[in-house]
Design brief:
- With 214 residues, the protein is α/β, with parallel strands linked by helices.
- 17% of the residues lie in helices and 30% in strands.
- The strands form two sheets. The protein has a seven-stranded mixed β-sheet with strand order 6-5-4-3-2-1-14, covered by helices on one side. Strands 7-8-9-10-11-12-13 form a seven-stranded mixed β-sheet, sandwiched between helices.
- Strand 4, helix 1 and strand 5 form a beta-alpha-beta unit.
- Helix 3 runs parallel beside helix 4.
- InterPro entries: Metallo-B-lactamas, RibonucZ/Hydroxyglut_hydro, UPF0173_UPF0282_UlaG_hydrolase.
- This is MBL fold metallo-hydrolase.
- It holds the Pfam family Lactamase_B_3.
């Protein structure tokens, strides 16, 4: 699995010969010139996960990419966007994409809760080789190989991030969703996740606009 991180929640995953770009949002940079994508996947409608000013040029540069999102984003954008509900399965010539979760984490009880699709990549035999939860702490029912774990968010305490990482217990995890905090504070969040993870989970950091084999 080859993974590139473009900051915040924007991640490019190359798996089973397919390229999937997740959450090209307003706090992310460097994804603009990507071509040859097989799918663009958006977990939910917030601008830090789908930048309204850059999504259309990205789609135009990748005319063959399937456009997958939570149901509300698909309804809002229309056109070729496909709603991926929890439990739905999409097959991209050998790469299985399964929807999970369904709802965004609660930001405040007085604010409406929107849709949020958790994207799970893999095969029929191993459906959770990679998991992008978007803005949720939904735990898959099958063992996870690589988890993109939210590190900081207006809807989450750091203790919840730690507990989520422990509950999923992936082979490997790397932090996302930290574009909302200053770079000087990254270590505060990353060190807690690293120190308090389960012993059999490896924790690594992919800096923005860097990539790695995981």
């Amino acid at each position: 699995m080859h993974v590139a991180h473009f900051g915040h929640s924007c991640v490019l995953v190359e798996l089973n010969g397919k390229k999937i770009l997740f959450d090209p949002g307003a706090f992310s940079h460097g994804f603009e010139g990507l071509t040859g994508l097989d799918a663009i996947a958006v977990t939910h409608q917030h601008a830090d996960h789908i930048d309204p000013n850059r999504i259309d040029p990205l789609i135009e540069a990748n005319p063959g990419a399937r456009l997958l999102s939570d149901p509300q984003t698909a309804e809002l954008r229309g056109g070729a966007w496909e709603a991926l509900h929890a439990g739905n399965v999409v097959d991209l010539d050998g790469l299985r994409i399964t929807g999970g979760g369904g709802r965004h984490a609660v930001i405040h009880p007085e604010l409406p809760v929107i849709d949020n699709t958790v994207f799970q990549l893999g095969t029929a035999a191993d459906p959770t080789q990679f998991v992008h939860p978007g803005d949720s702490l939904w735990v898959p029912s099958t063992p996870v190989d690589v988890l993109a774990v939210p590190a900081a968010a207006p809807w989450m305490k750091i203790s919840e991030a730690v507990d989520y990482l422990r509950s999923v217990a992936p082979r490997l995890a790397f932090p996302i969703h930290y574009g909302i905090i200053a770079e000087q504070a990254w270590g505060v969040y990353f060190s807690r996740l690293d120190e308090m993870r389960k012993a059999d989970t490896e924790f690594t950091i992919l800096r923005p606009e860097h990539d790695a084999e995981l």
